[in-house]
Design goal:
About 5% of the residues lie in helices and about 50% in strands. The chain has about 475 residues and is mostly beta strands.
């Protein structure tokens, strides 16, 4: 096949093996491949025995949404959905996600048109001088579920034009009136809406457009994170497999290209704020693979009863470059599955790999053992009782490590998986297709451990991220071990 290639690699966990979902784009053609990757554990510590798989509950199915856009036809701003008008008129950006089908506690949102055909407006009731042009969608009639907001309609008395607005938008000449309708707000044509935090020599930026996930992590002038698509970054990804591997609430969004703001689907943010040295984000996650539930480029699919997010504390315990990362998961019912908590996607310049066993104070380079995911169906698995993995550049002077404690010793992690994906050959930029993966996982997927049981309600999973030179990262991990950090 020819054309530009962009490969997205996502690690899936399931009993006895690792699933890799690779979404490859060849000159606009999208191909989904599922590869089952068998492997054996490496490293030390933890319980490696196979136990009975946990029970699996049927969670409520996700909801198919419809993306509303604003397009411009001459002087007429109008709300639209689907590819037809998007491909004809100028697109000003995404406005809201609303349900794609009618249900309880929902209104019918109509696009109205005046008798001259010169203005389109949006309404759930009759509008004097206007008739129904088409149904735009089925927004909620109350502020439920989580993260929805009241939708806004603007009117320009000078031009007589109506235009739907997103919260906080200041469109010159338009006054704002709320509609009796609620939807998930989007960000127009913006690909980034950042909340930054700096402490301990580390600066982080979380992107509200993409569910509030960690978009950039900078230490000593080096940016570590790969953010080529919404399957990367540093984020939580929950794997719930009642019948197959497609059930994947993803903190950032789904796999439709973030390079095109008109069709990129970020997860709606529920909360994003800083409190002192702690950055707090919560999102209502989209399913990574929207087509599996009837979605497409214009129809994201949302798990509206699930919440994913983080509490990230920089300069943890005054240790400078040590950050405490706690993943939050809220479920409506107990279920079996797995969680990358968090998945860590780094730029492709981090080409050396290390393990650190804190109980024996052993730092070992394992670069030669980490497989190339473009050519191999295996991952490197590390099972630390107390310790972690480290990815560094060729000099070892810039490194990120993840320190964790295993479940048997009161921690959150079953194993850490390492793999490299230089599949695109497009370099080391943060937006490049090539990437490095370092995933601390709770649950199965390493050929040894079964899926975990996740309770109804809120549960949390903590690891520690350290950025420094390799030797200093290992020293910080030793300090965490000495402190009894879990």
């Amino acid at each position: 096949m020819v054309g530009e290639k962009e490969q997205t690699v996502r690690t899936r966990v399931n009993l006895g093996f690792v699933w890799i979902l690779a979404i490859s784009h060849f000159a606009g053609f999208c191909m989904v491949m599922i590869l089952s990757l068998f492997g054996t554990g490496c490293g030390s510590g933890g319980d490696s025995s196979v136990s009975t798989p946990p029970p699996v509950s049927e969670l409520p199915k996700p909801t198919v949404l419809r993306t509303l856009y604003r397009v411009v036809n001459g002087t007429d701003r109008m709300t639209s959905f689907g590819p037809d008008e998007r491909n004809v008129y100028s697109v000003e950006g995404q406005l809201y996600y609303v349900p794609d089908s009618q249900g309880t506690r929902q209104n019918i949102l109509n696009r109205m048109v005046n008798s001259d055909g010169t203005d389109h407006a949006d309404a759930v009731d009759a509008l004097n001088g206007y008739s129904v042009d088409e149904v735009l969608g089925y927004p909620w009639s109350t502020p439920s579920p989580r993260a929805v907001v009241q939708m806004l309609e603007g009117f320009n008395s000078g031009t007589g034009d109506h235009a739907m607005l997103i919260p906080g938008e200041d469109l010159e000449g338009y006054t704002v009136q709320p509609l009796p309708a609620y939807g998930y707000p989007r960000y127009g044509s913006s690909g980034e809406a950042m909340l930054s935090l700096t402490a301990g020599g580390v600066e982080v930026e979380s992107n509200a457009v993409a569910g509030g996930v960690l978009w950039r992590w900078t230490w000593n002038g080096m940016e570590f994170v790969n953010n080529a698509d919404y399957g990367r970054e540093i984020q939580a990804a929950f794997y719930y497999p009642p019948t197959s591997e497609i059930y994947n609430p993803n903190e950032a969004g789904d796999y439709f290209s973030r390079a095109n703001p008109a069709i990129a689907h970020g997860s709606p943010v529920l909360r994003i704020e800083n409190q002192g040295n702690t950055q707090i984000t919560r999102t209502v996650p989209l399913n990574w693979d929207a087509p599996s539930f009837g979605g497409d480029a214009d129809h994201p699919v949302i798990w509206d009863q699930i919440v994913l997010g983080k509490d990230l504390t920089l300069n943890y315990a005054n240790l400078g470059s040590v950050a405490k990362y706690t993943t939050h998961l809220v479920l409506p019912a107990a279920t079996g599955g797995g969680i990358a908590a968090p998945a860590i996607y780094l730029r492709a310049n981090f080409t050396r790999f290390w393990t650190y066993d804190a109980t024996s104070k052993t730092l070992q380079e394992v670069t030669a053992q980490v497989p190339n995911g473009c050519h191999s169906s295996e991952s490197f698995f590390f099972h630390p009782a107390f310790g972690g993995t480290i990815a560094s550049d060729s000099t070892g002077m810039f490194a990120m490590g993840v320190y964790s404690v295993d479940v048997a010793h009161g921690g959150a992690t079953t194993f850490i998986a390492l793999q490299i994906y230089p599949c695109s050959g497009d370099g080391t930029a943060e937006s490049a297709g090539d990437t490095v993966v370092m995933n601390p996982v709770r649950g199965g997927g390493d050929g040894v451990n079964p899926n975990a049981t996740f309770p109804a309600g809120e549960s949390t999973y903590t690891v520690y991220l350290v950025t420094d030179a390799v030797q200093n990262v290992a020293a910080q991990m030793d300090r965490l071990y000495g402190m009894g950090a879990k």
